[in-house]
Specification:
Strand 6, helix 9 and strand 7 (291-296) form a beta-alpha-beta unit. The strands form 3 sheets. The chain has an 8-stranded mixed β-sheet, sandwiched between helices. A 6-stranded mixed β-sheet has the order 10-16-15-13-11-12, sandwiched between helices. 40% of the residues lie in helices and 15% in strands. The chain has 586 residues and is an alpha+beta fold.
């Protein structure tokens, strides 16, 4: 497997100037150009050499020059994870008990058990080394390090920087965690040979949990998961108080060593509300566990709350693809000798802690209610008989840029994630989609004067960014690496104090796409900057779907932005329509 390269310094700085130019006035851009020149003529080459030497050492250890810093960047987050970096998903795990579209699934617990059983089968198969290696569409082998989260484990909150407590790598006698009305249970999921227990055993475990916490029973106050929503400085202090009690330490170990956690959702909702709850609202997950699946008992929703420090959505997409297959289900269908019981585990709260947690989780709930989701579905603007290829990904980015410029009158930085898992310990690179060519196209579209040549130029620029990112020649991670090397000597790059740096690194639009809805139907995540917008976009056969997350009191003119998404799509359709008689190759 290839190592993540360290791009040439001059190449990155040249591309940086191109990327930042649409975000700056001519005067500010000249200052940025000067800062880049001082970096190249000053300490930049020395920092580059140090980064290259560090890369050789890390590569030999099975890492990349970026991976340790990447993980530390996540683990250093102090704010509540669901409001910062965690992600909520709606996923597709079909079973024979799925509801029909628009209907309520009344199969209840058997359906929940069937969903969980399929997911557990894949987790256990991974621990047994049975899952095949993943490959990219180009046949490149994907690094498997992200699959380590399938063993369970937790991110452990600490003062300053969190740590990772990994799950056991063996499949024998494993348990899963169940959340029900923010109460925590454990249920066995594999036998002493690492084999998946019968579906009937899991059904019995779920039934016994429901019997212990009846639907009309009081909800836990504060809930079992409350401290995990509070941010690590606060959570670590509370957890330290809890773990002073050996009984609580045993509960925490059972949680940390659960193969995964599942939240059983009683309250029906539409899909968008389910995703919003999953992503942001308390009581849905142990927010420091890599994966907390969500299975509704009242409708057909299946989802996932993801702690993002160890895994990306592309890996989860492959896991879910396996869960949709029957290959890993080897259910003997034998009733267990003993009835499977869910074991209810509770915190023993020290004096005053319940009141403190209740106060803080109430304050968190107010913050979480600020996050809002909107879904915009627009017709795909590409004519069926268009005689040349266009990138739907590029078109979606231009629709979002159109909405930004038409609403706010200027372009700010946009982040697009690009998968780098074909490199050893690879994660993602950032494609800077606000290119000069894209901005020129969008400005022309807004005034109705766009031309085919502008479309061609913007397509070429987007394609070049994709190639650069996929081959490890993107700029954002390299710039981060240089800045980290400089920081170890107590210095900074001249570029870091320039306005261009903060403009590029502050993402007004944080965007991502998984490409289709075969496994992951949609996702929601908090905006990454104050007043910014988070968008998951999906190019479908006949439509583009934009799931837009925003802070209700921070994001200005959101309604206008949402309206301009449709107008941007219409403008692209008007440009592409007359091109059916031309031939232009993307």
């Amino acid at each position: 497997m290839d190592h993540l390269p360290v791009p040439p310094l001059a190449q990155t700085l040249e591309k940086y100037l191109v990327a930042v130019r649409p975000l700056l006035t001519p005067e500010a851009w000249r200052l940025t150009e000067d800062a880049v020149g001082r970096t190249l003529e000053g300490d930049g080459p020395a920092f580059q050499a140090e980064l290259e030497a560090f890369a050789e050492t890390e590569n030999a250890q099975g890492r990349s020059w970026l991976s340790a810093a990447w993980l530390r960047g996540y683990l250093a987050v102090r704010t509540p994870l669901p409001l910062t970096s965690n992600v909520g998903f709606q996923i597709r795990v079909p079973t024979g008990l799925d509801a029909q579209p628009g209907a309520v699934d009344v199969s209840g617990n058997p359906r929940a058990a069937a969903v969980i059983h399929r997911l557990a089968a894949v987790h256990l198969a991974s621990l047994r080394g049975e899952l095949p290696a993943e490959e990219t569409p180009r046949g490149e082998v994907v690094c498997s390090v992200q699959r380590e989260v399938l063993a369970g484990g937790v991110r452990h909150p600490r003062v300053g920087v969190d740590e990772v407590l990994p799950g056991r790598l063996d499949p024998e006698r494993r348990e899963i965690g169940l959340l029900l009305d923010d109460n925590f249970f454990v249920v066995p999921i594999s036998d002493d040979r690492g084999r998946l227990l019968p579906l009937q055993a899991l059904e019995q475990g779920i039934d016994s949990a429901l019997e212990q916490i009846p639907a009309d029973g009081p909800a836990a106050v504060p809930g079992f998961t409350a401290l995990s929503y509070l941010g690590s400085e606060v959570a670590s202090a509370y957890l330290d108080r809890l773990l002073d009690d050996p009984a609580n330490s045993r509960v925490y170990d059972r949680l940390a060593q659960s193969l995964f956690v599942v939240n059983l959702v009683r309250t029906p909702a539409d899909d968008a509300e389910h995703v919003r709850r999953t992503a942001f609202l308390p009581g849905q997950a142990w927010a420091y566990t890599s994966i907390t699946y969500q299975v509704s008992l009242g409708d057909d929703f299946v989802g996932m709350h993801l702690e993002h420090s160890g895994v990306d959505a592309a890996t989860l997409k492959t896991v879910l693809r396996h869960a949709q297959q029957d290959d890993w289900i080897n259910d003997p269908g034998v009733t267990p000798d003993e009835v499977t019981q869910a074991e209810h585990l509770e915190w023993q709260l020290p004096q005053g802690l319940a009141e403190d947690l209740s106060r803080d989780i109430t304050a968190y709930r107010v913050q979480a209610q600020e996050l809002h989701l909107d879904t915009v579905l627009v017709p795909r603007p590409v004519p069926a008989d268009l005689p040349f290829r266009v990138s739907d990904d590029a078109l979606c980015q231009w629709v979002m840029l159109y909405a930004q410029v038409a609403t706010y009158g200027r372009a700010r930085s946009a982040y697009e994630a690009v998968d780098l898992r074909h490199f050893q310990a690879g994660r993602t690179e950032c494609l800077r989609s606000v290119t000069p060519e894209a901005l020129a196209l969008v400005q022309a579209l807004i005034v109705g004067q766009a031309e085919a040549a502008q479309l061609h130029d913007a397509l070429s620029a987007h394609k070049e960014w994709i190639k650069a990112c996929k081959t490890g020649r993107g700029i954002d991670r390299h710039l981060t690496g240089l800045a980290l090397v400089a920081a170890t000597t107590g210095r900074t790059l001249p570029m870091e104090t320039d306005a261009g740096w903060s403009r590029l690194k502050t993402d007004f639009l944080s965007t991502t796409s998984i490409g289709d809805q075969d496994q992951i139907i949609g996702m929601a995540f908090a905006p990454t900057s104050v007043g910014g917008i988070g968008i998951n976009y999906t190019p479908l056969q006949e439509h583009y779907e934009f799931v837009v997350s925003s802070h209700q009191t921070q994001t200005v003119d959101l309604a206008a932005f949402l309206e301009q998404l449709a107008r941007g799509t219409d403008a692209l359709a008007a440009l592409l329509g007359p091109m059916v008689t031309t031939s232009m190759v993307d």
